[in-house]
Amino acid sequence: MMAPYGLDGRVALVTGGTRGIGLAVAGALVRAGARVCVTARDPDGVAQAAEALGGVGLAGSVADPAHLRVLTEFTLDAFGRIDILVNNAATNLPYGPLMDADPDAWRDAFTVNVEAALRLTQCVWRAWMREHGGTVVNICTEGATHVGPNVGAYGTSKAALLHLTQQLAGELAPGVRVNSVSPGLVRTEMARFVWEHGEDAVAAGLPLGRIGEPEDVARAVLWLASDAAEWITGADLLVDGGTRVRPAHTTAAYTVHEHLRRHEPT
Length: 266
Known about the structure:
The protein is an alpha/beta fold.
């Protein structure tokens, strides 16, 4: 019997794939029949994730162009193809008012959150997808279309990634589909400073009554990466528990932005 979504025989490359959303995405792809290569900076984490997933992994920073080239070659050597690319690795630094931001740290945010996604898509396109097709899913954020306290660098870089997604979707069609998933507040380590204090209050302010789990995002990525979404490209799929429709929800009283103002990360 074919695995759900029909990914048997396909190969996925997932950045930031050792924890949180990235690990959940990799696991969902494996359960759907794909073989997976993960990358992240921590060698031990990469080795553990690869073993748990029954796949392969290569440690390194997505900010390093050489790593992205080697990563592409490594995946092709291991599996002979790359059908799915998930650009998930990200940084939320620098955190704070933009007038206090170090320009070098600001530049680093764009290197990791935007430039790396473009560079790796180029690598995979040239090595496999140009001739064989495929699909790319970029992990953006629900906050990419509006502003909030202290997240200017993250939000601006993710807004650029959202635009990049749409631009690439047009350029790489029809052979390669490019879409994005924009999560709201999800229970990850990177977002711990937001949800670990007063989670119940934050959840109560969402129409669906809870913060997100990595698996919520993984299911959206899986669908976009599969043939079930074969006529979709250039789209952004919100997975946010109703964050954007909250003003119409009569019981919503406590927003994530209000929470951020009260609980600054140390």
